[in-house]
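To the team - N-hydroxy-L-asparagine complex, inputs and output below.
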Amino acid sequence: MPNRRKFLQTSAAGLAALATGQVAAGPAARPAAVGKPVVISTWDAGLNANLGAWKVLKPGGRALDAVEAGVMVTENEIGCCVGLGGRPDRDGHVTLDACIMDEQFNCGGVAALERIKHPISVARRVMERTPHVLLVGEGAQQFALAQGFPLEPDKLSADAEKDYREWLKTSQYKPVVNVENSGRRVGPVGGKQNHDTIAMLAQDARGNLSGSCTTSGMAYKMRGRVGDSPLIGSGLYVDNAVGAAAATGQGEDVIRIAGASLIVELMRQGLSPKAACKAAIERVARIKGAKARDIQVCFIALNNRGEYGAYALQKGFNYAVQTADGNNTLLDCEYLLP
Ligand code: SD4
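Output:
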């Protein structure tokens, strides 16, 4: 029988965990691959992001710290398409979405966050310091400020300003693949640099998995629109006993199939990361029918044996992989529609 003192100590710990929302579920499910870290991330910006993650993973750091540090590199890249350098909504405001998840089902996210440089770090604070999973808009900003994140100027980057002025001439919003760019860019016709998301999955030397995702969302979206990227289960999901998955592309169609969660469940059933991503893409294609040609959706996945894979709906998606042999490589992704 537990003595009274021990019981009180345990209850206090339980209450503290409840107050922060952190899952105190004991040790994470035993990972399969131990000793060889790996990190994968979306698009070519992933190459630099992987280097940031590798600084944490190589000396034996935690996957959670790696996926935060990694995508912060991209959030910092002015002129890139993630973070405050990203394209605004149709009213001219840059609104940011991000989420993060660790090896114990702890997760946090922010949506429609404005004027904060590192939404991924605010997402992590939501995970670690609140009983909630998702904070949005004004409330997310209020929380960020209370946590000491500085309020950045309400100003578009020079590139974004120029493109926005151009876009305002027609104000045409059609979230379709920009074929002029071989399908590489996702967003409204006439938009530039519209693969505006980085998603990252990592396994550390202990074999634990974590993931992150951060975006300025679809360019010239409606004010208040939130995509898949901050939504646990759609833009990102991690189950340490199985694997992790993340998405980029047309958020509405990722949400429709609960993309990242679906892929993890398919891997649980025995599919390889690539086969699971492909099955999810096939589901999107089936649902969209002829309209599938108007969108791009792409998934990356990593299982707990350290195997990775990806699949896209259309040509043009690439992803970056850093492995323990020292290589950081950009891979062209296979795709469904010829
Ligand atoms: C969104 N999934 O907001 C994001 C956009 C994206 O490359 O991934 N663009 O829907």
